[in-house]
Amino acid sequence: MSFLSKTLDRVKPSPTIAVTTLAGELKAKGMDVIGLGAGEPDFDTPQNIKDAAVAAIAAGKTKYTAPDGIPELKQAICDKLKRDNGLEYTPAQISVGTGGKQTLYNAFMATLNEGDEVIIPAPYWVSYPDMVLLGGGTPVAVEATLENNFKITAEQLEAAITPKTKWFIFNSPSNPTGAGYSADELKKLTDVLLKHPHVWIMTDDMYEHLAYDDFKFATPAEVEPKLYDRTLTCNGVSKAYAMTGWRIGYAAGPENVIKAMRKVQSQSTSNPCSISQWAAVEALNGTQHFLPEHNVVFKRRRDMVVDMLNAIDGVTCPTPEGAFYVYPNIAGLIGKTTPKGTVIENDEAFSTALLEDTGVAVVFGAAFGLSPNFRVSYATSDDNLKEACTRIQTFCAALS
Questions:
Q1: What is residue 15's predicted lDDT score, i.e. its pLDDT?
Q2: pLDDT at 6 over 90
Q3: Are 309 and 385 in the same domain?
Q4: Helix 347-358 crosses helix 382-397 at what angle (to 10 degrees)?
Q5: 6-20, 131-145, 180-194: least confidently modelled range
Q6: d(Cα 256, Cα 258) in Å, to the nearest integer?
Q7: Does the first or last residue of the chain, that is N or C, have fewer Cβ atoms within 10 Å of its Cβ?
Q8: How far apart are the first and last CA of the chain?
Q9: What is the residue range of 86's domain?
Q10: 72 and 168 both lie in a single domain
Q11: How far is CA 303 from each of CA 210, 394, 396, rounded to the nearest angstrom?
């Protein structure tokens, strides 16, 4: 009999972390590696936020806090949701977790029972299905096609809903595609959800402020206020504020669900880092001037990567509305062979050969539930991106 829990048989390690780890190992052996796998801004945390953390340390704000967040941060989150999204919440409706991932995990652990289904548009962030499985639920993937710019339709959502559906998890702009749903596109989905009162909506709005061109971010409860009482609006400070390592995420929703999430967190990690919480207060309440400045850089990088990848025969790379990812399709390369004799049977074989032959680390599409694709994170320097895309072009041109 195995000593380990059978629960672990339901899940697999994060492929994005695995790619980053392998790239690190090759780099340690002396290989010139360019990592395009990590979903992490290369900007430093803004100075005002770091200063707030230092001030919190100096003031002795280093003790335990309430399990799911200090009152000042909960109020800052309420203010942010009102200011940016037109959503009214009270501090009692807010849960603060150790990053966005824990917030989503807490919600699933607090609400899922065996047999409950969770609809997940694919491609999806790699952790969604596994968190559902850990909670005892059943992930139901709905494939968003390249032809529809990686967005599901109202008809697809309607077809996926069953009496067992408990949650629809919604991520826009998306990881891994960067696809963003306009308010009109989102309204078509919320119209479907209005017809099914047993289905709750969990939003992952982590990339809200990373939007380009004319795209305007919208979140479900904002688009359809009638869904407010069965929506959990989740967000965090990791991406927009370059605070990935600070580990602060949050959720806003009905008080009974927030209380249940608090119970889960109180018996697992307890409170998020007190210093990080005070830094997050400043992030949400302080100046936001750097957000458009960062987006100018991200947009420039996006356009360069999209242009260089679309110049490759056999590759199709849509232009995303937000986040800092592109998700090129490589259907035209499947079945080809590298000069070393490796057959590109699928996107995992492509990504592995690309890393081993050129030192460019990307994440294969199967990890996100849609193939044949790979994900590129353009949250790195222009020089790195240009060199990486040049290597990808050379690698693909050598396939036969």
A1: 75
A2: no
A3: yes
A4: 110
A5: 6-20
A6: 5
A7: N
A8: 49
A9: 63-285
A10: yes
A11: 14, 19, 20
Mean pLDDT of 363-367: 95
Identify the domain boundary among 234, 253, 285. 285
* For residue 313, pLDDT beyond 80: yes
Contact 120, 142 (CB under 8 A): yes
- Please indicate, yes or no, whether residues 98 and 217 belong to a single structural domain of this protein: yes
CA distance 25 to 21: 6
Which residue, chain included where needed, has tokens 């050129």? 358
Q: Is 295 found in the same domain as 254?
A: no
Q: What is the pLDDT of residue 136?
A: 93
Length of the chain: 400
Asked if 24 and 68 sit in the same domain, the reply is no
**Collapsing DSSP states into helix, strand and coil, what is residue 326?**
strand
* Residue 171, pLDDT above cutoff 80: yes
Q: Which of 285, 307, 332 is the last residue of a domain?
A: 285
Alpha carbons 392 and 354: distance in angstroms, whole number? 7
Closest by CA position to 62, among listed 334, 216, 275: 275
Strand order, beta sheet including 363-364:
325-326, 374-377, 363-364
For the chain, the C-alpha Rg in angstroms (whole number) is 21
Q: What is the DSSP string of 5-69?
A: -GGGGG----HHHHHHHHHHHHHHTT---EE------SSPPPHHHHHHHHHHHHTT--S---TT-
